[in-house]
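Take just one protein record:
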Amino acid sequence: MPALAGLLLWWPGPGVSPSAAQVRSGLAQAAQGRAPPQPRQAAMPLTVMPFTPDCLDISRLRPLDLSSGTQLLVNHMVAMATRQQKEQLANNNFNHGDAETELREIIKSLFVRAAAGVRFLGVENMAGQPLPEGYSAELFILLHLPILEGPDGGPILPITVVDNRLDLTLLKSGRVDINRNMNDFQQYMMPYIPQDEPFHTLKCTHRDVLMLLRRMIFRNALRCKPTSSQKRCLPQLFNDPAMSPWFASYLSPRYAEHLGERGQGRAGAA
C-alpha cells in the first residue's frame, strides 16, 4: 500500500482538496485503529546529499524589503522574460501555451501567494498524465516566509517539497517505509494544511512544465543550505531522490540558470 497514498487514498478527486480535519480522519483510517503517530521528542540529525560547489547558504540571507509594498517583487517577476519575449507580448504575438511561459507563471504565482500568506499548496498535472495512484497532487509545497533577498538583489523563496510520484516509486521499490512516511507527513506537513477548507492548488497544463519544475526544485535543493524554518519541516532524510521524496529547495526569477541553462541569455536578459 503506497506510503502517502495509504493516508491519501480516500481523498477527493483532482480539483477537490481536503481540509485538515479530513486529513486527520484519513490518518486514523490509514492507521487501522492504531493510535496516531506522536511527534518525536528530539529530531534526529538530518541526512542530506552533498551540496554542490556553488551552494548558496540561504539561511544567511536577509529578508527582501517589501515595506513599501509588493511592486519590487512585481518588477522582478516581469524581469523573468527576455527582451524578445517582452516584445512578442507587447505585439500580442506571444505563445502563452509553451512550457517556459507556464513555468514563469508558476514561479510568479508561488511568490504572489507567499506574499499573501499562503503556506501550503498542491501542484496538479492537467496535461493528460493521471495523478499518482492514491494521491491528490503531484507535489506538495510549503512556502517559507519571509521572502529573502539573494546575492544579486533578487527575491528568493525557500520551499519544502514532497514529490508524491517519487514517493510512490520509492515505496513500490521498498526503499520507503509506509509507517515512517505517515509519521513524517503528519509531523511536518499537517500543521500547515488549512483548517476546514480546501488548500490552494496550481495546475500544470503543458506536458513539459511539471518536468521543468521538478528539475528546478532538485537542482536548487543541491545548491542551497536550508533555513531554520525549512529544517523544522523536514524528516531525517531529504534531498536524496534515491531514498526520500522530501526536498529543501528554493525558487527565484533566475529560472533558466536553475535549469542548468546559465549563459544562454534566456531568463532575466535585458
Notes: The chain has one domain: 3-33+51-258. The CA atoms of residues 24 and 32 lie 13 Å apart. Confidence is low (pLDDT under 50) at residues 1-16, 26-48, 262-270. The longest helix spans residues 99-115.
